[in-house]
Amino acid sequence: MFLETAMGVNMSIGNVEKRVGEVLEKLNELSTERSLKLWNHIEVIWLLSGKKAQFNYYIKRLRSIVNEVIQKKMQDEDLKELRRDESVIANDGYDSKRRAFLDILLTQTDLNEKEIRDEVNTFLVAATRTTTNTLTAIFTVLGIYQDVQRKVYQEIVDVVGVEGEIRPEHLQRLEYTERVIKETLRVFPAVGMFSRYVAEDIDLGNNVKIEKGASAAVPVVYMHRCDKFWTDAMKFNPDRFLPGTSSRHPYTYLPFSQGPRNCIGGRYVTMLMKVVVALAIRPLKVFSEYKSIEEISLKLGILVRMTDGPKVWFQRRVS
Ligand code: HEM
């Protein structure tokens, strides 16, 4: 979905989505090893362990896939037409033709080829595993909490109908489904931690100081599951996101980070996940072997995953 909607690339080219998935999985594993295991910060250990070579190998593969995507786009006839059509480019940045993000990068910016590649890289890395991991978590919780699933199903049927197209105007009315997505991102935040360069000394009080030049990691997954910030933190309760029900500090919930480097895909991905959930839940019931979220052990890294997978299965609804 990301390749087609944001990049405007037809999925049928050379199995791109599968290859990207494999490469990103490896890069996530290796980056997590490098950043979380202190000895891997020592260059010579990283080199001798063979991991540096592996990392470079996967980076090269990612670059070659990205090049392929860009080349494919450059040959795209529609794009050539967009380039020729000066009036589209000259207006106030909003045109009637629907454009993918990559079309805009290629036709409306002064970025050079390397900069475009970097943008595409960032987007591919940031947009794909985060989304699939969150969708996996959503189906798992729907499988565990059948009452939540029933309410999601009812809302989808009420708003969209048992059949038919799902349209943008339907999406904002899927309020309960949105709360389920938010609550899932609380207990299973796809990005389990992110870090920042500390630009100046920070005094946190109680003799805790963070020195300028350090890296500070924000442990999102611990914050989201901390009883200090959340009542019954391990209870799955979408209604904690009902408007006006909470007085917690807004920065205790950071699935898309905050500040100038936060996720720019939050709104897009919430819509995308509502569409996927609606399309799946209308014809299918989902079940999980897990009985509660507490049972699910997590593999923590930069990305969060379920150690033993989602353990879900689907069954066609009988009408
Ligand atoms: C459920 C899915 C997603 C989650 C949980 C998520 C989460 C995050 C988080 C926590 C960050 C900030 C990392 C940091 O502060 O260092 C981030 C950055 C980013 N995300 Fe997402 N993201 C998701 C989907 C997407 C999608 C679909 C897109 C693209 C359409 C996207 C594009 C980006 C980009 C470009 C950045 C980097 C922003 C920057 O460095 O300025 N994300 N994401």
UniProtKB/TrEMBL annotation:
User: Could you cite one Gene Ontology molecular function of this protein?
Assistant: iron ion binding
Q: Which residues cross the membrane?
A: none
Provide the residue positions that the database annotates as binding heme.
Answer: C263
User: Is Membrane given among the entry's keywords?
Assistant: yes
| Keywords assigned by UniProt, alphabetized | Endoplasmic reticulum, Heme, Iron, Membrane, Metal-binding, Microsome, Monooxygenase, Oxidoreductase
- Membrane topology reported for the UniProt record: Peripheral membrane protein
* Position of the signal peptide: none
Q: Which InterPro entries match?
A: Cyt_P450 (IPR001128), Cyt_P450_CS (IPR017972), Cyt_P450_E_grp-IV (IPR002403), Cyt_P450_sf (IPR036396), Cytochrome_P450_Monoox (IPR050196)
What role does it play? May be involved in the metabolism of insect hormones and in the breakdown of synthetic insecticides.
Q: What is stated as this protein's family in its record?
A: Belongs to the cytochrome P450 family.
> What PANTHER family does the annotation carry?
CYTOCHROME P450 4C3-RELATED, CYTOCHROME P450 FAMILY 4
This chain's protein is named Cytochrome P450
Q: What is the lineage of its organism?
A: Eukaryota, Metazoa, Ecdysozoa, Arthropoda, Hexapoda
